[in-house]
Amino acid sequence: MRKFGTLASALALCGSLVLAAPAGAQDSVGVNAAIRNSVQTRSSTSGPLRPAQLRAPVRLGDQFVTGPQSQVQVLLRDRSTFTVGANARMTVDRFVVSENGGSAVSVARGAFRFVSGRTARSSSREAIATPVGSIGVRGTIVEGVVGPDILGLLRAQPDVPPFTGDEETMLLVVLRG
After folding, report:
1. What is the distance between the alpha carbons of residues 44 and 91, in angstroms, rounded to a whole number?
2. What is the pLDDT of residue 35?
3. Of the candidates 174, 52, 51, which has an alpha carbon nearest to the alpha carbon of residue 111?
4. Cβ atoms of 82 and 113 closer than 8 Å
5. What is the rounded distance in angstroms from the CA atom of residue 170 to the CA atom of residue 177?
6. Closest by Cα among 102, 26, 89 to 63
7. Distance CA 147, CA 87 (A)
8. Which has the closest alpha carbon to 81: 53, 108, 107, 115?
9. Which of 5, 31, 46, 144 falls between 20 and 30 A from 60, CA-CA?
10. Is 56 within 8 Å of 29 (Cβ atoms)?
């Protein structure tokens, strides 16, 4: 009887491991498609930063921090791409593959570019959250910068009035396509 109990426990453990593996795989919303120079990542806000790895899975809650002259491009499962430039901070908040689809990322600082993927329709819900607001994306290319790097771009333009707000939360958005 004791052997049966041990065997049943072992089978239950193996069964739970087999069932747990697909659940972990489903958490992946994309992969690191390109990494240039110093890119750090962490699985949650409490984990330590570690070097990002090319082709490593990207999961909900993953955060990216890029260094000077650095960049990371994340390819999401719906073929959307999200690229973050130098000195940036970005978090993958949400990803849904369905008829309506949708993804959401938060950009706390730095330059970014989002190109919607194959499921992007007028009903899909792509969103980019920044310190000052959210950008809803409906099948297009969005580029932007969050933070003081914007001042360098604006100073080079004629007839732009001086900026008087919070430089850390400044937001510049360009719609393409």
Report:
1. 9
2. 98
3. 174
4. yes
5. 24
6. 89
7. 10
8. 115
9. 144
10. no
Q: How far apart are CA 120 and CA 135, in angstroms?
A: 15
How far is Cα 87 from Cα 28, in angstroms, rounded to an integer? 25
Q: Which residues have a Cβ under 8 Å from the Cβ of 120 and sit 6 or more positions away?
A: 78, 80, 101, 126, 137, 138, 139
Kindly indicate the confidence band of residue 12, based on its pLDDT and cuts at 50, 70 and 90: very low
Closest C-alpha among 142, 91, 135, 93 to residue 113: 142
Please identify which residue in the block is written with the tokens 């890029």: 66
Alpha-carbon dihedral of residues 127, 130, 133, 136, nearest 10 degrees? -20
**Would you place residue 9 in the very low, low, confident or very high pLDDT band (cuts 50, 70, 90)?**
very low
